[in-house]
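Tutorial, part two.
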Amino acid sequence: MRLQQRDLPVGPGSWRARHGLLAFPLGLIVAVTVVDILAPPEVHLGPLLVAAPALTAAIGGSRLVAFVGVVAVAAQLVIGTVRRGWLSLNHEVQVISLTLVTVVIVGFCYLRERHQRQLTQLRSVSEAAQRVVLRPLPRRIGPLEVASVYLSAEAEAQIGGDLHAAARTGRATRLIIGDVRGKGLSAISDASLLLGAFREGAHQHADLSGLARGLEASVSRGLAELTATEDDTEEDFITAAVLEIPDDEPVIHMINCGHPPPLRVHEQQVTPLHTRHQETPLGLGEFAATSYDADTFPLEVGDFLLLYTDGVIEARDETGVFYPLGARITSWTVEDPETLVQRLRDDLLAHTGGSLGDDAAVIALKRPPAFEHTPTGT
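Running the prediction step on this input gives:
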């Protein structure tokens, strides 16, 4: 979560909050005016009026600053007229200086407001891209309880190079989690390429091996087309883990294409699920022999399965220490995937001081003791 600079909160109490804060610079103008008029001739407090528009810039926009600046200039005119009956050279200089400073502050506030509007638009576009490309996972997929979270390393971006998706196929659930080379908005096209291929291929291939081969073919073809139209000549690829979880068997079938191994949590014991053959990342299949044989692992009732990208395990604290994912999960007692994901998210951000060096995606799922079969899903 990133805190963004805002003028004032929008809501039922925003009007009262704005005018309550505005009372301070206006009160300052009144106080300086009264004291300066009553002070001895050699005492001049008028220059303090410049603080009023400067303080207003912290609580409002350009129009509010301009209003307070006009009031401050008027107060300076009143001071000069009351004290001498006319404006002395000193008061004229003070009025001109106050006017110039107000104009500068108003210009700064205008640029800040324009930047905030641009950030708001960027967030809207990014959120729309996230909804289209990285659809949120439902809390229930078939018999499985599911939760997920995505943390982008790019400021203002809601989606980057990490990806996940799920699909229901008869009496099984298929999932994918992946990580595109690179990060941020530049990786969205590659991520959308794989997600589109998975969502289509998950329903066309009878087994996991065929699905993985189809993904490799689609990604290689798509990346070749993207490379031909872009200046980046580096080899693109996507690490990914493709899984199938049958409804009626306490197992997981998985093909891992260069991705960090998922973690199985069984009775507070964390076990990395290493496949016998680590396949090459998607998009690089032509450079190495690939079998795409699925490995099978247990997933009993009550077990958790945690899928994640390397942005989690490569996150560092201020001293350079990597995030100890396995040790953290072992020390926690959680009952559902939603709690596990939220606790992991908060702990990861606390470990890194709120700033990630790479995008991070996490999926947690659990096979509950009892369920009603759901024939359709995401």
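Residues 75 and 246 are 78 Å apart (CA to CA). In part three we will examine how such features are distributed along the chain.
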